[in-house]
């Protein structure tokens, strides 16, 4: 797990924020810590109400925390807000634009506020050419018409105006709050491509999301926010390492002493009918093709907790005595015990074996399971 460094672009320590008072108070943040290193794409992941937006708003000095420290580029984010904000671009989750300004005028104004020279707000065309060399390209990629007035844009198009502004800027840090919530799949793909390019340019990016595939696809590191705190933080590999690998195998028999194996969970064992083809079925119900086999599958499944709990194992399941047409095993295993399990299965007439790390979704569900 990344422990933080003095050079971090973002450093949040012990953030506490309560909204309201008395019995109606909501503790939105409850000691949240977050560190984002230069050049990193960091995903803030959590369900509705976890505290992601509150964190971002505090980071941007739009809100003041009750306690805790907020540092941006090593400086006090509140005291040095004006100077620091020239170095970052923010895209809020719900973009509101000035209704009478065109998209092009908004882009020009945002660039001007950031302190870039050479803008004109006289016409949309000069706004585009004056703001950034990349602006025309970005407008095209996001299929955005800069001539429309703010009030005429859809939610997705308002979001695109702010995304284009952020990508076209030269800000070192991009802070994006649920950036694709209003985008269609094509635009989402464009967004991801842009993000990869910005990362290659060395920009630091913090994005909040509850779209797991998005975070998985684009982020170097992820912090899972829960109840106003960071429950876990690390690279996807690190987070997966802390968790379990899914194993699915068909073997002649279970290894002796299987019931005593460490780190096994969610074990499902199905006795395969004689002659069933290895690897040809994808699920216990299919594997247990006949009524008798289905019964055996059910009883094997029912016996699983006992199998794990009782070292000796229930009769008929443990060890080489359990043969017939073979055994289909599905389980999750703590990743630290994976190789031991695979070696043991490998000595028992293995017919097929698949194993895969948990998806971010599985990690996420594990964290939020009631
Ligand atoms: N201005 C406010 N007044 C009162 N409560 C608030 C305010 N802003 C946020 N909260 C509460 O603080 C908690 C955290 O909200 P926050 O918006 O930070 O969550 P989030 O993780 O961004 O959720 P979402 O994914 O739904 O945007 C929630 O319980 C929310 O209702």
Structure description:
The protein is α/β, with parallel strands linked by helices. It has helices spanning 52-59, 81-85, 103-113, 124-131, 135-141, 155-168, 185-200, 212-218, 236-241, 284-287, 291-309, 338-346, 360-368, and strands at residues 10-19, 26-36, 41-45, 67-72, 75-76, 88-91, 173-177, 204-209, 221-226, 229-235, 244-251, 264-271, 327-334, 350-356. The protein has 2 domains: 10-241, Rossmann fold (3-Layer(aba) Sandwich), CATH 3.40.50; 245-368, no CATH class. Helix content is 33%, strand content 25%. A 6-stranded mixed sheet has the order 6-7-8-3-9-10, with helices on both faces. Strand 1 (10-19) and strand 2 form a beta hairpin. The longest helix has 19 residues, at 291-309. It is elongated and about 75 Å long. The model is unreliable at 116-131 and 275-323 (pLDDT under 50). Bound molecules: adenosine-5'-triphosphate. Residues 19-20, 26, 28, 46, 48-54, 210 line the site of adenosine-5'-triphosphate. Adenosine-5'-triphosphate binds at residues 19-20, 26, 28, 46, 48-54, 210.
């Amino acid at each position: 797990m990344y422990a933080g460094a003095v050079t971090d672009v973002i450093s949040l320590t012990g953030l506490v924020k309560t909204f309201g008072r008395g019995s109606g108070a909501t503790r939105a943040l409850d000691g949240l810590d977050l560190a984002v290193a230069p050049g990193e794409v960091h995903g803030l992941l959590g369900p509705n109400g976890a505290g992601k937006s509150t964190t971002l708003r505090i980071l941007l000095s739009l809100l003041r925390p009750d306690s805790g420290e907020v540092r941006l580029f090593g400086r006090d984010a509140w005291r040095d807000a004006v100077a620091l904000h020239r170095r970052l671009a923010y895209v809020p989750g719900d973009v509101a634009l000035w209704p009478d300004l065109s998209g092009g005028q908004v882009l020009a104004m945002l660039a001007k506020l950031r302190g870039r020279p050479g803008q004109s707000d006289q016409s949309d065309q000069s706004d585009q050419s004056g703001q950034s060399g990349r602006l025309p390209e970005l407008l095209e990629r996001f299929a955005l018409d800069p001539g429309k007035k703010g009030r005429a844009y859809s939610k997705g198009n308002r979001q695109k105006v702010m995304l284009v502004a952020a990508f076209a800027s030269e800000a070192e840090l991009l802070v994006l709050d649920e950036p694709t919530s209003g985008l269609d799949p094509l635009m989402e793909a464009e967004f991801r491509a842009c993000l990869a390019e910005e990362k290659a340019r060395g920009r630091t990016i913090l994005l909040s999301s509850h779209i797991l595939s998005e975070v998985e696809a684009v982020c170097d590191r992820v912090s899972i926010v829960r109840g106003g705190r960071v429950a876990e933080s690390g690279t996807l590999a690190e987070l997966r390492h802390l968790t379990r690998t899914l194993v699915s195998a068909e073997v002649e028999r279970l290894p002796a002493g299987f019931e005593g194996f460490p780190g096994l969970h969610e074990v499902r064992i199905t006795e395969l009918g004689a002659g069933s083809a290895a690897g040809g079925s994808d699920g216990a119900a299919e594997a247990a093709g006949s009524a008798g086999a289905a019964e055996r599958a059910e009883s094997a499944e029912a016996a699983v907790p006992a199998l794990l709990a009782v070292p000796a194992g229930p009769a008929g399941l443990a060890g080489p005595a359990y043969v017939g047409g073979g055994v289909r095993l599905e389980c999750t295993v703590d990743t630290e015990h994976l190789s031991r399990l695979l070696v043991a299965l490998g000595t028992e007439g293995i017919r097929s074996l698949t194993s895969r790390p948990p998806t971010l979704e599985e990690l996420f569900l594990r964290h939020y399971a009631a």
